[in-house]
């Protein structure tokens, strides 16, 4: 933080200076840091699928400005997907979302989509790219890859209309200092593949030989709570590692994420809200 102030309280010039400083610092780290970043691509898929997932491109019943921003998001994904797909993360290498995508600008084909910034949902060039980082994070959670940098929103902006993944399982990005990164600490290469259909963003991780285990994500302790007049949502995400076959015995359980975020909508009927003591 700049001068110990909250971003929403900054003068616009101070906020812009802080962003510039953080972006410059991250670029120096890219150039001179110790990480070895994945850069090699392969158009053909590696032979073994580790995990696959997809998400809908358009929210249901969008109209007006929201529909325009949803279409802008799809355009942004069309530009971003070719920059990621086919990437081979070799042993010891790190995947950096922001390094691969670069700064979203109109000159590069990006347009306005919805982004979440400073506590509000608003239009921004490159908005909607978090759908891609969210999908990649979910894939990584079901793999032997190691998450080394991941950020999440400090608020919950939308109700669970059509939500498939647990609350708080995403990975938000903002070029370039709020990055999503993971590292390959295994002995085999892992390939990232993403693509678009008419209705879906799809992705998978692939490798060279079958893995002996599989992973699943379990949500625990989910609840809404009112505290000091504000509504919050919390949960925990745990990962279970199981040996494939033989009744899939449980090998390991680990807590990955604890979420606590302010809610920016009225919960629907039937939602229980707990009062904080």
Can you describe what's shown?
The chain has 277 residues and is of the alpha+beta class. It starts with 11 loop residues before the first helix and ends with a strand. It has two domains: 1-34; 35-210, no CATH class. A hairpin with a 3-residue loop joins strand 9 and strand 10. The model is unreliable at 1-8 (pLDDT under 50). The protein is built from four helices and 14 strands. It has a five-stranded mixed β-sheet, with no helix packed on it. It has helices at residues 12-32, 64-84, 97-101, 130-141, and strands at residues 48-56, 87-89, 94-96, 112-117, 120-125, 146-149, 155-156, 181-183, 190-196, 200-207, 213-227, 230-243, 250-263, 273-275. The protein is globular, with a radius of gyration of 20 Å.
Q: Specify the helix fraction band.
A: 10-25%
What kind of sheet is the major sheet?
5 strands, mixed
What is the alpha-carbon Rg in Å?
20 Å
Instruction: Domain count, please report it.
Output: 2
- Report the average pLDDT across residues: 89
Q: Tell me the total number of β-strands.
A: 14
Shape: globular
Number of helices: 4
Structural class comes to alpha+beta
End-to-end gap = 31 Å
Strand content: 35-45%
Please provide the ordered H/E string of secondary-structure elements. HEHEEHEEHEEEEEEEEE
- The quaternary structure here is single chain
Low-pLDDT parts are: 1-8
- Main-sheet strand order equals 7-13-12-11-14
How does the SSE layout of this entry go?
Elements: H1 12-32, E1 48-56, H2 64-84, E2 87-89, E3 94-96, H3 97-101, E4 112-117, E5 120-125, H4 130-141, E6 146-149, E7 155-156, E8 181-183, E9 190-196, E10 200-207, E11 213-227, E12 230-243, E13 250-263, E14 273-275
Parallel strand pairs: 7-13, 11-14
Antiparallel strand pairs: 1-10, 2-9, 3-8, 4-5, 6-8, 9-10, 11-12, 12-13
């Amino acid at each position: 933080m700049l001068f110990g102030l909250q971003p929403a309280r900054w003068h616009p010039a101070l906020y812009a200076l802080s962003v510039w400083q953080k972006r410059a610092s991250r670029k120096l780290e890219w150039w001179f840091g110790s990480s070895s970043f994945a850069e090699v691509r392969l158009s053909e898929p590696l032979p073994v699928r580790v995990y696959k997932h997809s998400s809908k491109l358009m929210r249901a019943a969008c109209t007006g400005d929201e529909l325009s921003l949803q279409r802008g998001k799809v355009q942004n994904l069309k530009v971003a997907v070719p920059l990621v797909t086919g990437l081979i993360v070799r042993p010891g290498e790190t995947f950096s979302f922001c390094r691969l995508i670069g700064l979203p600008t109109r000159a590069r084909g990006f347009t306005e989509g919805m982004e979440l910034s400073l506590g509000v949902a608003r239009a921004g060039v490159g908005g909607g790219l978090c759908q891609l980082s969210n999908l990649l994070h979910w894939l990584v959670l079901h793999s032997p890859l190691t998450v080394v940098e991941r950020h999440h929103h400090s608020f919950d902006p939308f109700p669970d209309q059509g939500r498939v993944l647990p609350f708080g399982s995403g990975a938000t990005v903002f070029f370039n200092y709020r990055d999503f990164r993971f590292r390959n600490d295994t002995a085999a290469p892992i390939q990232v593949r993403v693509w678009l259909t008419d209705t879906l963003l799809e992705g998978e991780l692939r490798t060279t030989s079958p893995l002996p285990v599989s992973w699943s994500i379990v949500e625990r302790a989910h609840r809404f709570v009112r505290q000091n007049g504000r509504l919050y949502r919390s949960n925990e995400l745990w990962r279970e590692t199981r040996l494939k076959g033989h009744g899939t015995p449980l090998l390991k359980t680990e807590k990955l994420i604890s979420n606590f975020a302010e809610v920016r909508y009225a919960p629907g009927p039937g939602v229980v809200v707990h009062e904080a003591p």
